[in-house]
């Protein structure tokens, strides 16, 4: 389909109707998932409304002249900002890979990798907003915000996304200095693009987690005999009479990719987690909540 066809009134209306039909289900799933974590975690000191002192931080480009605490700055060579609890609220940026490979599901009773990633992202956003924090999507230019309206904007943006090509990679546009981020993907795309994204995050002192979302069929390669392998876009097609003979090489490459991602996380101060779509989402959401707490500044 051409770009022009994608932007005709008929196609735009069709996509809008599709989003409207699926958005309530996504939000319902995310809210239910978020509730399991919200009920299971204890309160913590966090950024919130009010003027209670939180911490000092070095002044950065863009800070206002009046924000500088001159008494604290006089005791050192640099300038410092006195943050209240509200000012210190951190941002959580979420990146969901929506390339064609993420739409795969090995069984009709399992969610696609994309739907599970979307649900986890929105559930984490709900938990963060309930905790008084700001959330946003890394692929959008808009800054992170709090509130229910922001959650709805994010959910709609996730449902409208449609990256070209078989495989994707994080392409963050918005990464607030010192914030936190989560990238959810199968990470089957160009490893150099993944490395570049985490490098840019590290340059901005952003810490976070990679969540690799895989269908169980992608872990065991349950194919034998004559098999036709075709990418989700149809751009790649390969037929073999001995599919099982490819299993060892495939599993070796998958293990190599996982090890590369884990090493990349170690080098950048991020964390790695593997999630399978045939497993409950609750443990992964709880892992994410705790992982982000540990890297919280």
Question: Can you give a write-up of this model?
Answer:
- This is DUF58 domain-containing protein.
- InterPro entries: DUF58 (IPR002881).
- It comes from Roseicyclus marinus.
- Mean pLDDT is about 80; it is low at about 1-5, about 10-15, about 40-50 and about 85-90.
- With about 300 residues, the protein is of the alpha/beta class.
- Strand 7 (about 225-230) and strand 8 (about 235-240) form a beta hairpin.
- The relative contact order is 0.14.
- It has a five-stranded parallel beta sheet, with helices on both faces. A two-stranded antiparallel ribbon has the order 1-2. The chain has a two-stranded antiparallel sheet with strand order 7-8.
- It is built from nine helices and nine strands.
- The protein folds into two domains: about 25-45 and about 90-295, 3-Layer(aba) Sandwich (Rossmann fold), CATH 3.40.50; about 55-85, no CATH class.
General shape:
globular
Topology order in helix (H) and strand (E) letters: HHEHEEHEHEHEHEEHEH
Q: Gyration radius, to the nearest Å?
A: 21 Å
User: How much of the sequence is in beta strands?
Assistant: 15-25%
Helix content: 40-55%
Low-confidence sequence ranges? 1-7, 11-17, 42-51, 85-89
Task: Output the number of helix runs.
Answer: 9
CATH architecture of the largest domain: 3-Layer(aba) Sandwich
Distance between the termini: 46 Å
Structural class of the secondary structure composition? Answer: alpha/beta
Strand order of the largest sheet: 4-3-5-6-9
Per the CATH scheme, the topology name of the largest domain is: Rossmann fold
Q: What's the assembly state of these chains?
A: single chain
Q: What's the domain count?
A: 2
What is the CATH first-level class name of the largest domain?
A: Alpha Beta
Number of strands: 9
Mean pLDDT, to the nearest integer, reads 80
Largest sheet: 5 strands, parallel
Domain DUF58: 55-258
Pfam families: DUF58 (PF01882)
Protein name: DUF58 domain-containing protein
InterPro entries: DUF58
């Amino acid at each position: 389909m051409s770009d022009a066809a994608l932007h005709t009134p008929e196609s735009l209306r069709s996509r809008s109707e599709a989003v409207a039909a699926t958005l309530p289900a996504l939000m319902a799933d995310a809210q239910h998932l978020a509730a399991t974590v919200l009920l299971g975690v204890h309160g913590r000191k966090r950024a919130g409304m009010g003027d209670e002192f939180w911490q000092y931080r070095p002044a950065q480009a863009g800070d206002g002249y009046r924000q500088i605490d001159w008494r604290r700055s006089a005791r050192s060579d640099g300038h410092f900002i006195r943050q209240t609890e509200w000012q210190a609220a951190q941002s959580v940026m979420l990146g969901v890979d929506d390339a064609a490979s993420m739409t795969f599901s090995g069984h009709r009773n399992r969610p696609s990798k994309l739907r599970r990633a979307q649900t986890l992202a929105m559930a984490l956003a709900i938990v963060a907003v309930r905790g008084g924090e700001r959330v946003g999507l890394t692929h959008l230019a808009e800054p992170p915000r709090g509130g229910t309206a922001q959650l709805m904007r994010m959910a709609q943006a996730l449902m409208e996304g449609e990256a070209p090509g078989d495989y994707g990679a994080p392409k963050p546009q918005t990464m607030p200095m010192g914030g936190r981020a989560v990238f959810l993907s199968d990470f089957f795309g160009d490893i150099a693009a993944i490395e570049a994204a985490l490098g840019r995050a590290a340059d901005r002192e952003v810490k976070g987690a990679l969540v690799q979302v895989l269908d169980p069929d992608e872990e065991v390669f349950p194919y034998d005999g004559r098999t036709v392998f075709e990418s989700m876009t149809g751009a790649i097609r390969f037929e073999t009479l001995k599919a099982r003979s490819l299993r060892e090489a495939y599993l070796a490459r998958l293990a190599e990719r996982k090890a590369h991602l884990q090493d990349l996380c170690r080098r950048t101060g991020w964390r790695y987690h593997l999630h399978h779509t045939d497993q409950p989402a609750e443990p992964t959401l709880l892992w994410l909540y705790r992982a982000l707490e540990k890297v919280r500044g």
